[in-house]
Design brief:
Blueprint (H helix, E strand, L loop, with lengths): L1 H43 L3 H14 L5 H12 L15 H13 L2 H4 L1 H17 L3 H14 L5 H15 L2 H8 L9 H5 L1 H14 L3 H14 L9 H15 L3 H15 L6 H10 L3 H12 L6 H15 L2 H16 L6 H16 L2
Helix pairs in contact: 1-2, 2-3, 3-4, 4-6, 6-7, 7-8, 8-9, 8-11, 9-11, 11-12, 11-13, 12-13, 13-14, 13-15, 14-15, 15-16, 15-17, 16-17, 17-18, 18-19
């Protein structure tokens, strides 16, 4: 009898503990939900300090770790959008944001809310891009492209840029980027469509399709917003148009486009290496050489392009001794470039082969 009483007491205590734990669990869930809702309300009002405080409190009581809480903490780490500035998230803590977005995805954000998951992939790709972790950025953008092709504007733009500037994949860059033209979904996308046109123009120059290059360069100029009109791509768009004029031997028009590029840069003669390139493409080798040699006497950031034009122009004239000098100069200078885009890599391969042939 006494044993039965003890057993009943033990069972009563166990039941009480279970009931208490259940009540605590239910209460905690309600508290977590309360702070989460308060956090989202503050976030919607751009009160990021209050939003972060409430969302962090919700995590204390959230035994299941709501992935959406971490998603919004990631958004808060990016800060308020600044569409009027060149950088869309001017006050972002990209490292912190990446950590929160990764946590949200690891906790099952994809199943919980696919719309937020889609945005998280874009935000993660951009965070890693800004942190110059291009491999991780590419990984996230490829995932975005694979799972959400209908909203892959930024994924396509960044993958193509990476193909052009780092990975030497021009064919893939063109294939990935062409569909981006019809995928603008937001004002921010529209503000950056000129970058899509610009990279397409550069790719068509690389492939020798100068008419398509000029068409896309003009689209870039037509679509650029006021705040971006002095971005580095804009004078280069004029350069691309100049190259096609040079190819057609319309040297006055080519010079006019180079002058426009100089005016944007507010530096006369800044793009004369590309004027030399226009003369070279129009088979006016003597003018290409004299223009390029004058640039080499100055402190011009594009000197390496002049060196390439001198190498090719002297080679076209049969002046192999001078051509060899500039082939080697080009290889020596570009060897130390941290980033070698598809044009530089192709020139390096061609020039090394020419040097070997001229031995």
């Amino acid at each position: 009898m006494e044993d039965n009483n003890k057993l009943k007491k033990i069972l009563s205590v166990v039941i009480a503990i279970v009931v208490f734990a259940a009540l605590v669990w239910l209460g905690s869930g309600r508290i977590a939900s309360y702070y989460y809702k308060k956090g989202i309300e503050a976030y919607s009002q751009n009160n990021f300090a209050a939003a972060k405080s409430n969302l962090e409190k919700s995590l204390i009581f959230d035994y299941y770790a709501n992935p959406q809480t971490y998603y919004f903490l990631g958004k808060i780490s990016l800060g308020a959008p600044t569409p009027e500035q060149v950088v869309y998230h001017a006050n972002a803590n990209y490292g912190e944001a990446a950590g929160y977005f990764e946590k949200a995805i690891s906790l099952g954000l994809e199943k919980e809310n696919r719309n937020l998951y889609s945005t998280a992939l874009d935000n993660l790709g951009n965070a890693y891009w800004q942190l110059e972790n291009f491999e991780k950025a590419r990984e996230k953008y490829l995932e975005k492209l694979s799972k959400f092709p209908e909203s892959s504007f930024w994924a396509r733009l960044r993958i193509a840029s990476d193909d052009f500037n780092r990975l030497n994949k021009p064919e893939e860059a063109l294939e990935v980027l062409l569909p981006a033209q019809g995928l603008t979904k937001s004002e921010n996308d529209l503000n950056h469509i000129f970058r899509v046109y610009f990279i397409l123009a550069r790719l068509y120059v690389y492939f020798g399709d100068y008419n398509s290059a000029e068409r896309y360069a003009k689209l870039a100029l037509e679509s650029v917003t006021e705040k971006n009109k002095k971005d580095w791509e804009i004078p280069i768009a004029h350069v691309i148009i100049a190259l096609n004029y040079g190819r057609q031997k319309k040297f006055d028009l080519a010079t006019s486009e180079i002058n426009k590029a100089d005016e944007i840069r507010e530096s006369k003669g800044a793009y004369n290496c590309f004027l030399a390139s226009a003369f070279y493409r129009g088979v006016n080798y003597s003018k290409a050489i004299s223009t390029a040699e004058k640039v080499l006497e100055t402190d011009n950031e594009f000197k390496v392009y002049c060196i390439a034009i001198l190498a090719n122009s002297y080679m076209a004239q049969g002046a192999t001794v001078k051509a060899k000098k500039y082939f080697q100069d080009y290889l020596n200078i570009t060897e130390n470039f941290a980033e070698k885009n598809i044009v530089i890599l192709r020139n390096r391969k061609q020039f090394a082969e020419e040097l070997e042939r001229l031995k």
